Here is the input.
Amino acid sequence: MSERVVPEGSRQRRRPTKQGAMLSEQLIVDTALRLVAQHGAEALSVRRLGAALGADPSALYRYFRNTDALVLALADELIGRAQEGWTATGDWQTDLRSMGLRVHSCYLAYPQAAVLAAHRTTGRPHETRAVERILGILRSGGFPDPLAVRIYHAFVDQALAFAAQDAAAKALPPAARDGDEEVWQSVYSRLSADTHPNIAATYPLLAADMRDSGYPFALELMLVAVAALRPRDTP
Here is the structure.
């Protein structure tokens, strides 16, 4: 998509697409997520989206100024899907844990889109709601505002960094992904205790643990550290 500006009042399409659906921002985002999952980032073109939607490609400019605006919408959609059904329990550790695990799980469900979107700041409704919720968890949990902001920053960066890394690994072609996993058997299992005593001593545990994401344990480590920073006089 190239940069174009369409007046706000002209953005709504009044005729259905060839598939009989009314074109909307949500329909475009849902279709873009599906195409990215199937074909990767190259699917985000006016031509391919228009063909998938059964709409004139130029109609997309009524909703998104360019491809980057669409990427931000995809990023915000992932954040929104991660929050679907989430409710606060009132326990700050439980609520932070569930929020982090939801974000990580949602991004892994859409690995191709996560690679594009995990590092973006959207300023859109789902993201602002997530920021509000996480800060609310921390402030209601007794953390003073300066500390709440720093914890928020570390918490979100940790969740998104692991989500991006794990999504990138999941988005690899199967042969490359299998090759990476095989390295633990073909290389690490054969390292000598004379040259690599720590790897040799822990290899079975190491190989088993590296099959899964390190995020759940990293999150628990963060929660323990955050609890240690919580003011002692907080009820």
